[in-house]
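SUBJECT: A protein chain and its fold
Encoding: whole-number codes for local backbone shapes
RECORD BEGINS BELOW THIS LINE
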Amino acid sequence: MLKKLDVLKRIAWHIAHKSSGKPRDFARKLNISLSSLHRYLRELKEEWNAPIAYSELEETYYFSDSYSFEEELIKKLQNF
């Protein structure tokens, strides 16, 4: 569980800083498979309310609205 949270946090950090790069490069950067990256991105969108988008022009993921992974984590912990 902690490893998964760490990966989600790292993904969110790179997205917030627009430093992901193309999906395949992003997966390599995180040392995970491309399919795992897509699963994590889907989870961030669906379960962590992350407004993730991808810019073909800038070749990076970004948040299309303000977002904080840490704030979402605190909300989840409060509901736990």
About this structure: The mean pLDDT is 96. The domain at 2-79 is CATH 1.10.10.10 (Arc Repressor Mutant, subunit A).
